[in-house]
Amino acid sequence: MNIMIQGGRVIDPTQQWDQVADLYIQNGEITALGEAPAGFEADEVIDAQGQIVCPGLIDLCTTLREPGQTRKGTIASETAAAAAGGITTLVVTPDTQPIVETTAVAEMIQDRAADVGFARVLPMGALTQGLEGEQLAPLHGLASSGCVAFTNMRNGFSSSQTLLRCLEYAATHDLLVVFQAQDNTLVASGCMHDDTTSTRLGLNGIPEAAETIEVSRCLLLVEQTGVRAHFGQLSCERSVRMIEAARERGLNVTADVAVHHLLLTDESVSGFNAAYHLQPPLRSQLDRAGLRQGLVTGTIAAICSDHQPHDPIAKQAPFAATEPGMSGLETLLPLSLSLIEQELIELPQLIETLTSAPARILGIEAGTLEIGSQADICVFDPNAEWVVSDDTLRSAGKNTPFLGQTLKGRVNATLMDGRIVFRR
Amino acid sequence: MPEANDPNSIQLTADGQLRHFLTTEGLPRELLTEILDTADSFVDMSQQQVKKVPLLRGKTVANLFFENSTRTLSTFELAAKRLSADVLNLNINTSSTKKGETLKDTLMTLEAMHADMFVVRHSDSGAAHFIAQHVTPNVAVINAGDGRHAHPTQAMLDMLTIRRHKGDFAPLKVAIVGDILHSRVARSQIHALRTLGANEIRVIAPKTLLPRHIEALGVKVYTEMAPGLRDVDVIMMLRLQKERMQSALLPSESEFYKLYGLNRDKLAYAKPDAVVMHPGPINRGVEIESEVADGPRSLILDQVTNGIAVRMAVMSKAMSGQLSQRGESDQEEQA
Lengths: 424, 335
Prior knowledge:
The complex is a heterodimer of chains A (424) and B (335).
Chain A: E1 2-12, E2 17-26, E3 29-33, E4 44-47, E5 52-55, E6 57-62, H1 75-84, E7 87-92, H2 103-116, E8 120-126, H3 139-144, E9 149-151, H4 160-172, E10 176-179, H5 184-187, E11 192-193, H6 196-201, E12 205-206, H7 209-225, E13 228-231, H8 237-248, E14 253-258, H9 285-297, E15 302-304, H10 332-341, H11 347-354, H12 356-362, E16 377-387, E17 406-416, E18 419-423
Parallel strand pairs in A: 1-4, 1-5, 6-7, 7-8, 8-9, 9-10, 10-13, 11-12, 13-14, 14-15
Antiparallel strand pairs in A: 1-2, 2-3, 5-16, 16-17, 17-18
Helix pairs in contact in A: 4-7, 7-8, 8-9
Chain B: H1 2-5, H2 29-45, E1 60-65, H3 70-82, E2 86-91, H4 99-112, E3 117-122, H5 127-134, E4 140-146, H6 152-166, E5 173-177, H7 184-195, E6 200-204, E7 220-222, H8 225-229, E8 234-237, H9 253-260, H10 264-267, E9 275-277, H11 290-293, H12 300-334
Parallel strand pairs in B: 1-2, 1-3, 3-4, 5-6, 5-8, 6-7, 8-9
Helix pairs in contact in B: 2-6, 2-12, 3-12, 6-7, 6-12
């Protein structure tokens, strides 16, 4: 199939390309930018005038509910939502039921995603068996069956020694470890940021130290072991500063942030709206400013959705009794684009944080429009407005605090491996 | 979603009448004063031979207690009966089933019974807000205590007790002593005292029992009784739960009593005419010395009497707010 994407502003940070051009796709690959290849005849033309053409987005943190909790979402429903959000690669968490701790589960998820065919799904494997923080999971075997990184999520480790051994073993095989840093003894029964709003509402707080103590411990052991490490979904300004200092010392660490942490603060919780019940929690204005600064300086290289779809029941209870997390695949791009209107960063830099930067963190060949690369492409209108609603969201999870809001920036076409997987 | 983020929009009708009573926070001073004035008239009435008024005749009040409390439940029941309402008491054990589902299911069942008012006590902060947001529009919700968040009728009965003994709030210095961290009573007292214009509000507790940035609520923070009680007019003690000794919040009851228990010596730091209050039930020898609790400056029993009057006032006001709302919606339907 030959596809031509015509007349769009093509932005590819890997080639420092930013100009209006036609893009040509043949047999799943990008074959030309600008001039048509000799003898090219388009089977399909996508009119991209007035729109942006960029590499397909790569989301570093999505929770798939299949296998195990398909009432909250299936691989089919959530990868379709990804395609509608311009996302062509999803890095998914290992907390399915069963957990991604055997090659069978890792392969099943990828096979299922391939069958559905909306987005590339790259599983993260469990770092420890059962995510219990005690025994090493079979990292080498899981890596051989497609796991791109390993994480214990927010479950903690039984001891610092266990953590150290996990990192040593991962370093042995040059595997990427992802931390969702959280000291659960400091979280206790907390359900939101510990500050004036939690005091007013009488909700148990989660102090910054729940994150920063774990970031600090992990950084020290990363330094000792030399493991490749990535910190996902930072929420605290101080975490950013610690990672910045570690990078200045030459440590091989990277970080991402969930887009909603760049936009919202804990004050949103006043009124007990469970859509704002998140982990890590929304934090103070100072933290938000620190995260935004981290994005500008590059300490935070990537923006992710931290997509966690839920069924309605999960959020229909008093705040603390609800399940944390929000649906975010389809709002990742428009919410990120709002950072440009807020003059935080420029569009090419923003696209880098959503495409080539996550590819670089993972060490995968994706997030580029270079000639010869797989045609994973997102075409979007940065000015088109749409209302977030139960009807407009394709995800099974309608649990977003942006429900009812008008967002700017809408995907018109998504291609994966040269196939049109979404078109408005 | 601005309306969901404004805790007051849900409590008041379009023209500013009370329709749910969920928190004292953010309610206008006039409204709090009206509640106190109405309650005052009910206090006087309770001393008469016939203690009933027909304000809630034909209405059904459902007391939904997801957390045990004999005292609060019985004062609400008595208040509803003195207003001539039919009363349904439901003790619902939350631990037996998953909380959220129980709550939602219970609400749907009760909606089908056409109750006019829910009085709700629940161990989760925000439970009363949740119920107010998820019930049919014509049911008034009264918060009888939600988690650590609010206990607005307790705060208002405390305000009534203070006003009946001290008159004006403007000159008063008030100290709230004890487990502020876990106390919905303290939070509701602080908001009410601020709105009613108390001169100074203090909290006194060890740092383990103070929530973060409590000063942002407009209080002065003290960690010692001597400076904290100096020259205060009102001392409001809080109940200390025994569990607090097990989570490294306090070393022992005896050390807490030594440092923060109100005895005659510590009471002497306050003004000579300072009054002492406690929401009950009292832990004698933990928060307060018996001689103080039973002494001439103690208003603890007055609080109980005033509690019935305040609950009658709040219930009758919320019901009339609901009725006026219903009137509005009827008119809209006709139009």
